[in-house]
C-alpha cells in the first residue's frame, strides 16, 4: 500500500499534507506535516497539481481557497470539525450590527462562509499577534471561546467578545484539573493547547499551538512533557525527538481526525476524490482574510 501511494504521488505530481493529529501511518507518507498555520502557508507555496489534505474539512478548504486553480481533495468527505460548526455567518452579521466599531477575527477552525465575513483569520499559533496587529479596541472572536480567553489574558488592553460565548472543542475541554493533579504527582512539564479551558491554561507551564509544541520541544530539555492536546501529538513528538518522554491522555481523541485510513489516501490519489468545491466569491473574500493573517506572520 505504501509503495502504491508513493507511486501515485509521484505520477500525479501530488502533494500530501497532513495535520499533526493524523494517524502516524498517514503522517509517515505525507510531504508536509504541521499545524493549521504551517499547512496554510505550505499550501500557498506548493507547485503540485493535486493537493491531498489529510486533516479535517476546514484545512482542505483553506488549501483550496489559497490555490483556487489547483485540485484539492480530502480523502474522507465527512471529516469535519465540530468546533467550526459553532460559528454561523448569521452570528457574525448580528455581532457586527451590535458592535460596528469592532474587528472580526475568525479562527481557521471555521467554515469558508465564516472566513469570508472576517476581517482577518488567525490560528492558535498567531492569534495574539493577529489581534495585537489590529487598531480596534473591541474584537469579535470566534468560534473558540477558550482561545478567545487566552488572547484576552495576553492582551488585557483589548476587549475580546467570544462568538458564540460557548464555542469549544470537545477534545480539549476534556482536560480537567484532575489531569493536572495527576501530571503534577508524576512530574514533568505541562504543555497545553489554547483550546483547553482557562483553568487548565492557568495551571500549564506553557501554552502552544501544535506547531509551537514541535518548536519548543526542539529547544531541548530532558524533562518529560505532558501533552495536553489530541493524543497523536505526543506520538508525533516522540518520532521527532526519540529518547524524550511525552505523555498523552489516551481519551483525548479527535474522532474526525481518525477517519482517514491509508486505503482512503490511496483511493483519493487514484480517483482524485473528494474534490473541495466552493463558490468563487466566498473564496475571494475568505482569501483576503487568510492572506492578511499570513502577512501578519506566526
Ligand atoms: P493547531 O493549529 O494548533 O494545529 O490546532 C488545530 C486544531 O484543530 C486544534 O484542535
Ligand atoms: Fe476540531 Fe477539536 Fe478536532 Fe481540532 S481537535 S479538528 S478543534 S474537533
Q: What is the annotated CATH architecture of the largest domain? A: 3-Layer(aba) Sandwich
Beta-strand proportion: 15-25%
Tell me the CATH superfamily of the largest domain: NadA-like
Mean pLDDT: 97
Bound molecules: 1,3-dihydroxyacetonephosphate, iron/sulfur cluster
Largest sheet: 4 strands, parallel
How do the strands line up in the largest sheet? Answer: 2-1-3-4
Based on CA atoms alone, the radius of gyration comes out at 19 Å
Pfam families: NadA (PF02445)
Protein name: Quinolinate synthase
Cofactor: [4Fe-4S] cluster
Keywords: 4Fe-4S, Iron, Iron-sulfur, Metal-binding, Pyridine nucleotide biosynthesis, Transferase
Describe the structure.
With 298 residues, the chain is an alpha/beta fold. It folds into 3 domains: 2-81 and 258-277, NadA-like (Rossmann fold); 84-168, Rossmann fold (3-Layer(aba) Sandwich); 177-253, 3-Layer(aba) Sandwich (Rossmann fold), CATH 3.40.50.10800. Helix content is 42%, strand content 15%. The strands form 3 sheets. The chain has a 4-stranded parallel sheet, with helices on both faces. Helix 3 packs parallel to helix 4. The chain is globular, with a radius of gyration of 19 Å. The mean pLDDT is 97. The chain binds 1,3-dihydroxyacetonephosphate and iron/sulfur cluster. Residues 20, 35-36, 109, 123-125, 169, 195, 209-210 line the site of 1,3-dihydroxyacetonephosphate. It is an enzyme of class 2 (transferase).
